[in-house]
Task: inverse folding
């Protein structure tokens, strides 16, 4: 499954402070705000100077969780701008 392959790519190396985010850009996720999440992540990377890797996927296969985001190898569902800010704060990226 594509998610298993994506997970191996998105997981940071052990002991590494790099964080990896992959935002689904499938039809349902786009409809529910995925582009805004990508913009928010890009703004955080630009303003913090953190080693933050941001990517987009055509479809993660989790349409029922739209918008879906993979954060350091873990799939998060129904991610809003507010939830993203909370996750970034939890990771020390805000």
Result:
């Amino acid at each position: 499954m594509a998610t298993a392959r994506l997970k191996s790519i998105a997981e940071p190396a052990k002991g590494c402070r790099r964080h990896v985010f992959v935002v689904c850009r499938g039809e349902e996720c786009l409809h529910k705000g995925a582009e805004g999440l990508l913009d928010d992540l890009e703004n955080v990377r630009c303003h913090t100077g953190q080693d933050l890797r941001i990517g987009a996927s055509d479809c993660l296969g989790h349409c029922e969780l739209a918008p879906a985001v993979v954060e350091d190898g873990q799939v998060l569902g129904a991610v809003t701008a507010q939830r993203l800010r909370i996750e970034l704060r939890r990771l020390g990226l805000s």
Remarks:
- The chain has one domain: 2-7+17-90.
- The CA atoms of residues 61 and 89 lie 27 Å apart.
